[in-house]
Amino acid sequence: MSKITLLIFCSLLLAASVLAWNVPAMAAPSLQDGEAATPTPGPDGRILYFVQSGDSLFGIAALAGITVEELRTLNNLPADETTIYEGQQLLLGYGTSGQAATPTSAEGGIIPTLAPPTSTPEGPGTANICVFLFDDTNGDAMRQETEL
């Protein structure tokens, strides 16, 4: 291989590696528009969510802090049904609000409520952050041995 060919090859390799740094990750989520609203119980104690464009059962369940199965049970959704539509009203659970009655489960027992929130401590603090980066070449968001 001549010196010119080797020089051209190395230049192209260097240019390709520099350009690769400017390519966004394929598995990265898109930016969110604003903050997620905190679900608030209505006058009857029900916490409702209105499905928005791009929502999924998994995402709504994660937002509410419940499992997809709990979300399905609360809304009488069949296990094989994954279709939700924009504007659909979903029950996320029950909270306490003013004159709300205590909801009960189908078995007659009382549905447990979450513990009240605790105050955030004030003042400086420290934290540890662990970041694990890898080149997700197949876009499955899981690192394989072949991915650097």
Defining traits:
two-stranded antiparallel ribbon, 7% strand, 3 helices
Mean pLDDT, to the nearest integer, reads 75
Radius of gyration: 25 Å
Helical run tally: 3
How many strands in all? 2
Global geometry: elongated
How is this structure best described in words?
By secondary structure, the chain is an alpha+beta fold. The chain has helices at 3-20, 57-64, 68-74, and strands at 46-50, 89-94. α2 packs across α3.
Secondary structure layout:
Elements: H1 3-20, E1 46-50, H2 57-64, H3 68-74, E2 89-94
Antiparallel strand pairs: 1-2
Helix pairs in contact: 2-3
Summarize this structure briefly.
With 148 residues, the chain is an alpha+beta fold. The protein is elongated, with a radius of gyration of 25 Å. The protein is built from 3 helices and 2 strands.
